[in-house]
Amino acid sequence: MTLSLLILIPLLGGLLAWYSQGFNPNLPRRISLFTLLGSLAYLGILTLTSPLARSSQWLFDESHVWIDRFNITAHFSMDGLSLVLILLTLLMGLVALSSAWCEIDKHQGFFYFNFLWTLAGIIGVFLAMDLLLFFVFWEVMLVPMYFLIAIWGHENRRYAALKFFLFTQAGGLLMLLSTLALVVFHYQETGLLSFNYHVLILAPISSPMAIWICLGFIIAFLVKLPAFPFHPWLPDAHTQAPTPASIILAAILLKTGGYGIIRFVLPLFPDAVQFWSPLMMSLAVLSIIYGALMAFSQHDLKRIVAYSSVSHMGFVLLGCFSLNMIALQGAVMQMLAHGLSSAALFMLVGLIQQRFHSRDLHQFAGLWRYLPQLSAMGLFFAIASLGMPGLGNFIGEFLVLVGALEQHASFAVLASLGLILGAVYSLRMIQKSFFGPFRTQGSDLESPASTADTRIPLTSTSEQASAKVAEHAKPPALPSPYPDLSLKEKLTLMSIAAGLILLGIHPQPLLDMLEQPLAQVLAYAITGSAL
Amino acid sequence: MIEITWILVLSGVLFAIGLFGLLSRRNLLFMLISLEIMLNGVALIFVAASSLHGNVDGQLMYLFILTLAACEVAVGLALVIHIYRQQQDLDVDKLTKLKG
Amino acid sequence: MNSLFMNDLLMNDLLMNNLLMAIPLLPLCSAAILILFQPNERWTRILGVSSVSLAALLALLLNVQVWDEELFIIQASLGEWLSIGTSELASQHAGSLKLSFGLYLDPLSLVMITIICCIGALIHVYSASYMIQDADQCRFFAYLNLFVSSMLILVLADNLVLLYLGWEGVGLCSYLLIGFWYQKTDNNRAANKAFIITRIGDTAMLIGIILLFYQFDTVNIQQIQQQSQVFLQANTAGENQLIALSCLLLFAGAAGKSAQMPLHSWLPDAMAGPTPVSALIHAATMVTAGIYLIARNDALYQLAPQVLMFIAIIGVLTLLLGATSALFQTDLKRILAYSTISQLGYMFLALGVGAASTAIFHLMTHAFFKALLFLSAGALIYCMNHEQDIMKMGGLRKKLPLLALSFAIGCAALASLPMTSGFFSKELILQQVAMAEQPLLWWGALLGALFTALYSGKLFFIIFMGKPGHAPSHKTPAVMGAVLIVLMILALFGGIQPQGILHQFGELTLDSSSGLTLLEHGLPILVPLIGVILAWFLFGQTRGDKPVNRVGLGRFIHSGWGFDTLFSSVFITPFKKLTYLNRHDIIDASFRALETVSYRLHLMFNRLQTGQLRRYSASLILFSILAIAWGVIR
């Protein structure tokens, strides 16, 4: 019961949250908070108390009989990779909860039920070591997400939710078919009927069909990632989803795609991966460049961030198929850093939307004037996402580029265009939203303040408004019409920022934790056998 | 002993009359009656075949069809009455709510 | 040069290490405090100025400590950054990558940190006075401190990736400071332009670093230099193609940051920032990072002589571009910006002919006199109530004597009149070029010197001589004056003793017995004088208030040789158009087409479902008959 408890806690918490709505509409969110904190505490206790066996890749293992006839088991295992991603899931769950706290005001119980069940599904995906079980959790995280978008979303939510559902479902179906084909071929070759990852990995199938089975898996994960031709669901889903759902989508849900490739595709199909690697790397490069180009042309903030996710996840794909240690480490680091930075950016867009009722860059500008703290945070995370050294995203992109250059130099060089284009769209976003004269859709709050001498700009931030300086320094401190960050928001964003800095300056503990699982994966992917 | 051919012709004619009625009448009630005529035309063949082959199965089948027809008429008439109450009309060409 | 690697004087003194670590960390901590706690204005100024001043003191202390050492290397480590594949577990499938936060101090970086800290401290003091009326000082000093810290990390880094961290850090701070007055859209445009153009170079440089990593299996700068020395001695020409390529990529980064052609066009626009920022970042320190990078990797560049030649050519072209464009500008700060571009061109020329020490020497004197010029310009702009057009000024020497003096010294040094600091360094560069036997480059540099003298003379004569224009509205504040006086002394005498701080590059010679002809000796001394005299006759007495209309060549040169127009029409406009055309995502459209097709099919088949019971029954019967018939026929 060690690992399944990790999934059961949010599942039960979700049911409880739904049930508790009848007593008090504020109860569900508190229950969710305690559920997440409880899960975190449990995870902490689990990893701290049990001895970390350095000799083996797997920290925990748990198996129950499920469908005996087909030798399907409820098998959970956890290694460094799963641990890191589950940690990310729970932490970003907390961030999403923080942004949901005040934003969600209808059907709270059902919202938090879906919220926690999505998280449970994601944790299940990271733990499941039986292919059918994996598929089940893959669906479990999908359906509640559909409801989150379709019920609490913005103006065009039905369309977006349906699009999200269809794309992922098509991918999921492909994955189910490939799973069955894999098991059947494996049965034919070894006489051993098993859905178990640990069994399948030992004897990779040698049939020529392996290439196509592998492609089925890859496409399912590419849809989730999302990579270039399968990305159109993402901008719509992100734009229409409520902020907490956007955070979960960007920060965690996309990572299941990268996780799937690393965990299943690479070790299960060593030959097919070699075969597909050039194509996948070119798709990755296309994602990087295309996503960045699309992000440049958008004027909906959420769409910009969504397309930038496509661009950043391209680096993950590039890293996964570069098939060496540095690139693989880079891919995982990029997943973590992108999880943090995109969650923060979506949260910021949500905050802007709360204040201005719009995400459209044409509707507002110059937010720094009245919202200096929010804008400073926006600046920080935009800079982080364009890959400033010293922050987490740089580590990811740098390592991926180093690894990719060894495998295919031309792809790495093309991918580095993404760094330039990333700067282009990030700076455009910063400039259009935070800088320039203040403006909103309806009212022009700022009377053009003495344009003759704008060299000394008339800024008044809440902190500095009290100081008294000579004649033309400042206007009388205008009462800011829009509230700046509240303490809760500030704390949330600051801790994400701290996380990014930590990832950028001192990633070594994470790299150490990831080293053994990734080395194992590489060993299977390159030589087809364990280390 | 009437020749089997005549009986077949009779039942064929009955079936055709029913078919024609089903396709040409627009009143739901008459369509139901035409359906009954078709059913009876088929049932007649069962009886005739049973006496030709000296096998009781055909007559047994006739009893089945009889029961079935009774049930069908009961349900059908109930529906017809309900439709009439709702729509004040039994013209099938006007009952096109299930159009796609 | 050869004795560099002997490790004869590896100092592992604990005190020195701590000193070294404290230098970049002090401004960093202060920046963090300013950002996080946002103290009031008084404390902001105190904190911002004192942290950098303290760092400057420490740097000077280091100078005193190692004053009598011929060669020294001080290393300190701020900890590990990351290491991958170093354990035996993973090493079978991967090369190992190891990065650390190591600091490395040798004479070259000592010169750099001394310049950065001292000029930085002076400019911080100056800014405290210059920005006193600004409401947002906290942000200003935070950015400025962060800049100094990143710049120090850049020059102290012992590996290329850490150098890249500092490199991007200074780029970011430059971006933030150019756009410091964020309410003006033009400033933001200039900031974006600066960041994006330098980012293009930086990305090339990152690729270059990764290539070098695969060539040398390390990113540690010293190890790369040692290995390239070995290559050079072994004369293995086989692998040089990739090394040359990575050298070229590194130079692309340097060209972006140091505003060399064709990546120069951001620097004139970057003058939108506050003037102290222009002085610190866009004249004295950040733009010289490119020079530092190539000087630091000197041994590596020896392996790629063709790249060095390329650098020299770019340098000459850039110095001509900068000098001619400066001649046609009327905006005070833009003149100085173009002159910076041109002086940087001189430095790259020196690097290109293999005289790294001379380049660094010119870097130092340039930092002195250009900081002086910019700060004087800032004071002048302040006094003239934010007027930047020199055509509206004139005859100011009586009203602003201190500024007149400082401008005179600055312009003289810029024009490299004899006995100023600029004279020594530029003279040396010309001498080195002549010794490298590249006559075309030499004449180009000489022509540049003529133009330089011409525009420096023009600048001074128009502002301070001639008929009076607008009257100054303020007096020069005392703090600014004090800073200017210190810089005047440096600009005058900073070039006298180059050997004292340039031990590292042994080949530095000022002797006249190097086999140069009289022409090659005399012309570089004469040309600036001729230029200044020419400028006196051309601009000395005119009061140029008349509107300048430029046609043809004049406009071309004024716009910085039309690079902005070129980029805009070749890259920016097509990029914008293309992305705008595709703003609804063509891939999405194809998936939507799938949806449309299925909807059309749905409509088509929908027509069969009429809802008419009789049609249904008729088709039922029809198809039953057909089915029976089919069965019978078979």
Compact summary:
Chain A has 531 residues and is mostly helical. Chain A has helices at residues 4-20, 27-49, 80-103, 108-127, 131-140, 142-152, 157-190, 197-200, 210-224, 233-240, 243-268, 270-297, 301-321, 325-356, 372-385, 392-407, 409-434, 487-505, 508-527, and strands at residues 58-67, 72-79, 364-365, 439-440.
Outline the structure in words.
- The complex is a heterotrimer of chains A (531), B (100) and C (634).
- Chain A has helices at 4-20, 27-49, 80-103, 108-127, 131-140, 142-152, 157-190, 197-200, 210-224, 233-240, 243-268, 270-297, 301-321, 325-356, 372-385, 392-407, 409-434, 487-505, 508-527, and strands spanning 58-67, 72-79, 364-365, 439-440.
- Chain A has 531 residues and is mostly helical.
- Chain A has a domain at 270-442 and 483-531.
- In chain A, strand 1 (58-67) and strand 2 form a beta hairpin.
- Chain B has 100 residues and is mostly helical.
- In chain B, helix 2 (28-53) packs antiparallel against helix 3.
- The longest helix of chain C is centred in the first third of the chain and has 32 residues, at 185-216.
- Mean pLDDT of chain C is 83; it is low at 1-9 and 506-513.
- Chains A and C meet through helix 12, helix 14, helix 16, helix 17 and helix 19 of A and strand 2, helix 5, helix 6, helix 22 and helix 23 of C.
Q: Secondary-structure map with pairings?
A:
The complex is a heterotrimer of chains A (531), B (100) and C (634).
Chain A: H1 4-20, H2 27-49, E1 58-67, E2 72-79, H3 80-103, H4 108-127, H5 131-140, H6 142-152, H7 157-190, H8 197-200, H9 210-224, H10 233-240, H11 243-268, H12 270-297, H13 301-321, H14 325-356, E3 364-365, H15 372-385, H16 392-407, H17 409-434, E4 439-440, H18 487-505, H19 508-527
Antiparallel strand pairs in A: 1-2, 3-4
Chain B: H1 4-24, H2 28-53, H3 57-87
Helix pairs in contact in B: 1-2, 2-3
Chain C: E1 10-11, H1 14-37, H2 41-65, E2 73-84, E3 97-105, H3 107-130, H4 137-156, H5 160-178, H6 185-216, H7 221-234, H8 240-257, H9 266-269, H10 275-284, H11 289-296, H12 298-302, H13 305-328, H14 332-352, H15 356-383, H16 401-414, H17 421-435, H18 439-464, H19 478-493, H20 518-539, H21 553-558, H22 563-581, H23 586-606, H24 613-633
Parallel strand pairs in C: 1-2
Antiparallel strand pairs in C: 2-3
Helix pairs in contact in C: 1-2, 1-4, 2-3, 2-4, 3-4, 3-10, 3-15, 3-19, 4-5, 5-6, 5-10, 6-8, 8-11, 8-13, 10-15, 11-15, 13-14, 13-18, 14-15, 14-17, 14-18, 15-16, 15-17, 15-19, 16-18, 16-19, 17-20, 18-20
